[in-house]
TrEMBL record:
Domain HRDC: 617-693
UvrD-like helicase ATP-binding domain location: 11-291
SMART domains: HRDC
Stored PANTHER family: ATP-DEPENDENT DNA HELICASE UVRD2, UVRD / RECB / PCRA DNA HELICASE FAMILY MEMBER
Catalytic activity: ATP + H2O = ADP + phosphate + H(+); Couples ATP hydrolysis with the unwinding of duplex DNA by translocating in the 3'-5' direction
Name of this protein: DNA 3'-5' helicase
Record keywords: ATP-binding, Helicase, Hydrolase, Isomerase, Nucleotide-binding
A matching Pfam family: UvrD_C
Residues reported in the UniProt entry to bind ATP: 32-39
Enzyme class: isomerase
Length: 693
């Protein structure tokens, strides 16, 4: 007999969702695209199993990947009358279990969670004779996290990176030493990092049958949301939880795998039936979240993806009534773009859209500054998710105190150059670091230099004290506490969430796809999936925009995100605008076809080289080797990594294009006024065959 509660539970579901909800206890896999109701299906499944007496609420453990998503699941479960089911992240579940089992397994030895691992990594790096600059330490931290999430021990590390064609931040044998040293220091101090929580939980369940038995008594039914982003380490914990049982429901969308860089893989999702051949597999195609207009664009974005595995080739079918077509907008510079977004948000609010139903999404956290500013100016409240507000970031606070301290001494010099010099002390380098948090910090510092440029351009006699005062005013204005507001979030943090109106901003090559993905097809594909995640967050209003230069009056050398080609309707004014701005005759931004094969160029490396990356190089080998030697010497003198002087791609471009004068040199993208001043003489002397000083 089906009771009222069950009937209500099944009523709001379509036949496929219902099949997943009603599937008998045992392995269930829901493979489906964005907005098809996966999260809804699993919460209903839990409620259904509990209401029909198949499992007690307390025996269910639902896991997902972010605290926000876990909170959302708990809210939905409560609304379905199941407050007793646990919905947690892998980490918080492991932490809880470890606290409980630890005294019995290890005894009373107390342990603490580590507060940021950089200090220990710094000590380990120092001991290993590895570089200890903060940027390198951050990269090492990410690398060690990746290795641990991928279940790669220090000894296996060199082999693993070779097999996966992964570029380590410093030579692999040095990473090994730092990794080993870090583990040792951490163990001696009785500290655990986040990955250890998972490692120890898995080990306890694997090695202590009694503990495992007790745990298996306690939890009987497991549910994993966003399963496409599971890491090998998380999978191992999940295996420990399950033991020999198979009561596991997973849901996911391989097209939304966006954490591969951190070791996640959609394989366990796509190969679920290999592990559980008797599994119930459900595919959902109806998109309940977005209008057909948004769904159409999402389908287009993802159908261009290369090498889509079989289980991910789903086409979404929009279920909602028609809505406005997605808008594409190109601007001259970022402040103009941000102001236009703020204006559009105001219009939406005036027309009745609640602030909490609007989101501005970006690729890197540093992009939020312009929007925090524009929204503040427009008097629109906002909240920053998955990242701190700009002026609360550690590097920004450090930069502010460095500038404040320097302004007491009334230093001389052009404001932007002065600011740049001062910020070098807190980590600003000439070229962006390869990626990760180092890149985020760098972007924040660069944003401050750009504010200095902006102030110089707009205020007569702008000097350091004026600039510091300006920064403080901005910081103060952006601090008022907000209750309800527009969400500012990174694309990564937006996974699983939805809003009526979504603004995808700053869509330029180099930001999306992010520069360090270039030349690595898998990494570029992950960036494409990020765009897909962004597009599919919108219920109704979707806006995509980019700007050709960072600051007002700057060089308009940026190109819109390559994933947008073919998506913008032909009659769209932006399509014409963008075409006409790239068809001009001269200048670096116009070199859009390969000088070897004539095909159009895709990607920043290719643009820099002026040829496709796989076209034969016409490099002057002798010059290249001289340039490399020179770079090494300069880098040593300046005590910076070599790429800060010039990246490999820039050196290659110089050795291929052999510019003989400053104009030729700056026409290579990545060489601006600062680099020309600093290194132009040396480089031109080398190219022209005279010995460089
Ligand atoms: P994502 O891949 O982005 O995590 P999802 O597949 O988990 O998406 P949900 O968040 O569960 O999708 O659902 C998307 C939206 O569609 C939600 O607002 C949900 O309430 C609604 N929805 C899902 N199924 C139905 C249905 N059968 N009828 C009406 N609305 C539905
Ligand atoms: Mg979901």
């Amino acid at each position: 007999m089906v009771g009222d509660a069950e009937k209500n539970l099944l009523e709001g579901l379509d036949p496929e969702q219902r099949a997943a909800v009603q599937a008998p206890r045992g392995p269930v896999c829901v493979l489906a695209g964005a907005g098809t109701g996966k999260t809804r299906t699993i919460t209903h499944r839990i409620a259904y199993l509990v209401h029909t007496g198949h499992v007690a609420a307390g025996q269910v453990l639902a896991v997902t990947f972010t605290n926000r998503a876990a909170g959302e699941m708990r809210t939905r479960l409560r609304a379905l009358g199941i407050p007793g089911a646990q919905a947690r992240t892998f980490h918080s579940a492991a932490l809880r279990q470890l606290r409980y089992f630890w005294p019995r397994v290890v005894g009373d030895a107390p342990w603490e969670l580590i507060e940021g691992k950089l200090r220990l990594i710094g000590q380990a790096a120092h001991k290993a004779g590895a570089p200890t600059e903060i940027e390198v330490l951050r990269d090492l931290a990410s690398e060690i996290e990746w290795a641990k999430a991928s279940l790669i021990s220090p000894d296996d590390y060199p082999d693993a990176v070779r097999r996966r064609h992964r570029t380590p931040p410093i030579p692999a044998d040095q990473v090994v030493k730092v990794y080993q040293g870090y583990e040792k220091l951490k163990n001696n101090a009785k500290l655990l990092d986040f990955d250890d929580l998972l490692l120890h939980t898995a080990a306890v369940l694997e090695e202590h049958p009694q503990v495992a038995e007790e745990f298996h008594e306690r939890y009987r039914c497991f549910v994993v949301d966003e399963y496409q982003d599971v890491t090998p380490l998380q999978q191992r914990v999940l295996n420990g939880w399950l033991g020999q049982r198979d009561d596991l429901t997973v849901v996911g969308d391989a097209n939304q795998t966006i954490y591969s860089f951190a070791g996640a893989s959609s394989r366990p999702l796509l190969e679920f039936t290999r592990r559980f051949p008797e599994a119930t597999v459900i595919r959902l195609e109806r998109d309940y979240r977005s209008t057909p207009q948004v769904v159409g664009l999402a389908n287009q974005v993802i159908s261009a993806a290369r090498d889509r595995p079989a289980g991910s080739r789903l086409k979404l079918i929009g279920q909602r009534p028609a809505g406005p077509v997605p808008q594409f907008h190109e601007y001259d510079d970022e402040p103009t773009e941000a102001a236009a977004v703020a204006k559009r948000i105001q219009d939406l609010v005036d027309a009745g859209t609640p602030l909490s139903e609007i989101a501005v999404l970006y690729r890197v956290n540093a992009q939020s500054e312009a929007y925090e500013q524009a929204l503040t100016e427009a008097g629109i409240p906002y909240l920053v998710r998955g990242g701190e507000r700009f002026f609360e970031r550690q590097e920004v606070r450090q930069a502010m105190s460095a500038l404040r301290a320097a302004s007491m001494d009334a230093p001389e010099g052009e404001l932007p150059e002065l600011v740049r010099r001062l910020l070098e002390r807190v980590g600003l380098t000439a070229e962006p670091p390869a990626g990760g948090s180092a890149r985020e910090r760098w972007e924040s510092l660069l944003a401050i230099v750009e504010l200095a440029e902006e102030l110089t351009a707009t205020v007569e006699g702008a000097d350091l004290p004026k600039f510091v005062a300006e920064l403080e005013t901005r910081a103060a204005a952006q601090h008022p506490p907000t209750v309800e507001g527009v969400t500012l979030a990174s694309l990564h943090a937006s996974k699983g969430l939805e809003w009526d109106a979504v603004f995808l901003i700053g869509l330029v090559d180099g930001t999306l796809p992010i520069q360090f993905a270039d030349g690595d097809e898998a990494a570029v594909e992950e960036e494409r999936r990020l765009l897909y995640v962004g597009v599919t967050r919108a219920r109704e209003h979707l806006w995509l925009s980019w700007s050709l230069s960072r600051s007002p009056g700057g060089r308009r050398h940026r190109r819109r995100c390559r994933f947008l080609y073919g998506l913008i309707p032909e009659e769209h004014p932006t399509a014409r605008l963008a075409r006409s701005s790239t068809n001009g005759a001269k200048g670096p931004a116009q070199k859009l076809s390969c000088r070897i094969c004539g095909r159009s160029l895709v990607g920043t490396v290719a643009t820099k080289l002026g040829r496709c990356t796989d076209c034969p190089s016409d490099v002057d080998e002798e010059l290249l080797s001289k340039l490399r030697d020179w770079r090494m010497t300069r880098a040593k003198e300046l005590k910076v990594p070599a790429y800060v002087v010039f990246t490999d791609a820039t050196l290659m471009a110089i050795a291929e294009q052999r510019p003989t004068d400053p104009a030729g040199l700056v026409s290579i993208s990545g060489i601006g006024a600062a680099k020309l001043n600093r290194f132009g003489g040396d480089v031109l002397a080398l190219v022209n065959g005279t010995s460089a000083e």
